Amino acid sequence: MISSPEMSPRRSVPAPQLTWAQRLREVLLSPNAIRTASVAVFFVIWEYYGRRMDPIFMAPPSAIFRAALELLRNGALEKALIQTLWPFAVGMALTVVIGVALGIVMAQWRTLEYVLDPFVNALYAIPRIALIPLIILWAGLEFAGKVTILVSVAVFPITVNTYSGIRDVRGGMLEIGRAYGATEWQIFWKIILPAAIPFIMAGIRLAVGLAIIGIIVAEFFTAISGLGGMIVEYANVFATAKLFVPDHRHRARGRRADRARDVAGTSYVALAPARTRAILEFACGLRVEVIRCC
After folding, report:
1. Which of 36, 260, 253 minimizes the C-alpha distance to 245?
2. Which one of 75, 107, 145, 199 has the fewest beta carbons within 10 angstroms of its own beta carbon?
């Protein structure tokens, strides 16, 4: 019998050390550095050409910054922001609740899907801006009217994505739950809803952008207040630098909402192994209960 030679123990090989030039190149070519450079170049070009244009038509970033400081000092920007955030927050909460609930109802019950599908498709195709005069007649010019306009603009992406996410659940996952005796309620909460969360989060991301548009349009057409009212006021007097300030506030709010959505989505993806383990433990627990009963 031929004896195999003894294998030498494995040795860890240290990773190659990057030189200073390689590290600098890696930092400069990173995605965040490229994004920062592109934004900086954009503002430099804007500042250069903005100073050479008529201030009625275009204001440079430096003038917009001075206007923002002035609005912050006199409290006008803070007051307008609060007036906009309150109906935006309430309308966005109602949008998520109504959109998710409507999508679940349509996906879980075929009869209700057949009943609601023509109305959802028709309202989704109609430009909701054309319905604003009718909404104003029904809900008025104040808080209720603004919230209604926002919900009518932003609710449908969440509904459609929730419906698609529930319909996209693999049949094999449902069969596993049924094979171990899970009830329909347990299958929905343990399998269907967790699998549909990425679709729902995508719908919420789309709805945030539409909700910002909806609240601004609502402030244009209803009681002129908030950031939308500031835009109308400064546009009427050709105060271009101040006109850009509420626009930038809306962009910043949209970016923060997207960042929050991305953080929630990343956390959900990071918990994917835990969700899979929870589903398996749930199935195994049902199997043990079935064995005990038998």
Report:
1. 253
2. 75
Q: Which domains does the chain have, with CATH numbers?
A: 68-293 (1.10.3720.10)
Distance, C-alpha 138 to centroid of its chain? 29
User: Could you report the per-residue pLDDT of 185-214, keeping only the tens digit for each?
Assistant: 878 888 788 888 989 999 999 999 899 888
Amino acid at 152: S
Rounded Cα–Cα distance for residues 169 and 193 (Å): 9
Closest by CA position to 18, among listed 10, 29, 26, 6: 26
Contacts of residue 206, defined as CB under 8 A and 6 or more positions apart, other chains included, come to 157, 158, 161
> For the CA atoms of 48, 54, 58, 62, what is the dihedral angle to 10 degrees?
50
Retrieve residue 133's tokens: 């005069």
Alpha helix segments (H runs only) across the chain? 20-28, 31-50, 61-74, 76-108, 110-125, 132-139, 143-167, 171-179, 184-187, 193-221, 226-236, 240-270, 272-293
Residues 6+ apart with CB under 8 A from 287: 180
239: left (phi over 0), alpha (psi -120 to 50) or beta: beta
φ and ψ of 115, to 5 deg:
-75, -45
Cα–Cα distance list, 214 to 14, 130, 201, 208, 222 (Å) = 56, 12, 19, 10, 12
Task: Supply the pLDDT for residue 157.
Answer: 92
Q: What is the mean pLDDT of the chain?
A: 78
